[in-house]
Amino acid sequence: MKETTLCYIEKDGAWLMMHRVRKKNDLNHDKWVGPGGHFEGDESPEECLLREVYEETGLRLTNYAYRGVITFISDRWEAEHMHLFTADAFEGTLREDSEEGTLEWVPKEKVRTLPLWEGDLLFFDLLEKAGFFTMKLRYEGEKLIGHEEHIYYPLMEKGQPE
CA-based, 20 to 30 A from 55: which of 17, 22, 77, 92? Predict the structure, then answer.
């Protein structure tokens, strides 16, 4: 099973999204996703996250949170554990272009109008209510045929004791 990371970086009510249009044979071709990628060597999820975000965006994350693990099962692609993060602080200058696609700050309310994987819509919902969760998504081709989710830590409200 392959191991990957994905990060949604937030700034001024928008997520940094990548329109994947550059790589040949990309299972995400023409989809919009956050920055991330495959583990290298003996990387931890956090090490992979920081390296991939920097390589794809030019940004160095200074505040991020581990939000969940998504298990993808597909009839076309190798099974995958994707380690999902969000971030709200960074340093550096955003690259104008990436080898994998076009980067754009997309207002959160418009993200759902982009060409996304069906399962991404489900974990966008969980990002609003769960601090940490797991999810399993089953695909036949690009069609989501089943899912299950488990919330382990609800998202804390501001002012709520920890």
Answer: 77
